[in-house]
Amino acid sequence: xxxxxxxxxxxxxxxxxxxxxxxxxxxxxxxxxxxxxxxxxxxxxxxxxxxxxxxxxxxxxxxxxxxxxxxxxxxxxxxxxxxxxxxxxxxxxxxxxxxxxxxxxxxxxxxxxxxxxxxxxxxxxxxxxxxxxxxxxxxxxxxxxxxxxxxxxxxxxxxxxxxxxxxxxxxxxxxxxxxxxxxxxxxxxxxxxxxxxxxxxxxxxxxxxxxxxxxxxxxxxxxxxxxxxxxxxxxxxxxxxxxxxxxxxxxxxxxxxxxxxxxxxxxx
Length: 268
Fold this sequence. Notes:
The strands form 2 sheets. Strands 1, 3, 5, 6, 7, 8, 9, 10 and 11 form a 9-stranded mixed β-sheet that branches. The chain has helices at 33-44, 55-71, 108-113, 149-157, 186-191, 195-199; strands spanning 2-14, 16-17, 24-25, 27-28, 72-80, 83-93, 121-141, 179-183, 221-225, 236-246, 251-261. The protein is 21% helix and 34% strand. The mean pLDDT is 85. The chain starts with a strand and ends in a 7-residue tail after the last strand. By secondary structure, the chain is of the alpha+beta class. The chain has 6 helices and 11 strands. The chain has one domain (2-83, 130-261): Alpha-Beta Plaits. Strand 10 and strand 11 (251-261) form a beta hairpin. The protein is globular.
C-alpha cells in the first residue's frame, strides 16, 4: 500500500512536449514528467532559475527544482488521448545576449519594447497540441521528497502562479480536483478517479465535449515510472527525455516509462 496524490488534467488544448529541434515542436500522447513537475512548481510558487541573473538565486531555485524531480514518482491514466492539432506559429523575440550580458525579461511586454520593433527577430515553428484530452495523474513521494503530498494537494487548490498544461496557451479548463488516497497500486489509485467525479458540479451534461460521451467505449492507457507499485504488465517501454537535470540550462535526462492498456491484451 502506498499514498498517492491524484488529480486531473483537462483543457481544450494541451501540449506535452517531446524533443524539439528547430522549427518542429512535437507533443506526446501522455503528460511528460517535466511538465507535471513544472505545474507542481508553479503551484508551490517556485521560480525558474533561468529568469534571474543573480547566481545565488539561480543555485537556490535550481536546487529546489532538482529536489522535485528526484523526490516523486509519476503515473498517468490517459482516459481520452484527444485529437491532434498542429499550429503554424510565429513569434517576435529580441536578442537576449549571453553570459553576463544576458537580458532577463519580466513580461512579454518587456520583450517587445526593449528594442526597436524592426530589430526584433521572428521565430517560425510548427507546434503540436492535443484537443480535449483528459488524463489523471498520480504522484507518490520517494525517500527525501521535499514536500509531503498533503502540501502539494493544498497548493494545487490554491496555486501561487498560473497553471498551464504544457504551454502558456493551455490553461486547465477544469479544476485539478486533487485528493490524497492510499491504494494498492497505481491502477487502483487512478481507476478510483473517474470522469463523473471530475465534472460533477462544474458543467452540465449537455455542455460536455462530444468526444467525452464515448468515454465508456475507450480503453485507457496507463503510463508509469519503473519503480511504481502495480500489477499491470508493460506492453511497451519507451525512453522519454523529460527528467529535469537543469532548469537553468533547460537540460533533461532520459527516463524509462512503461505503458499498457488496463486489463486488456490489446497492443498500444
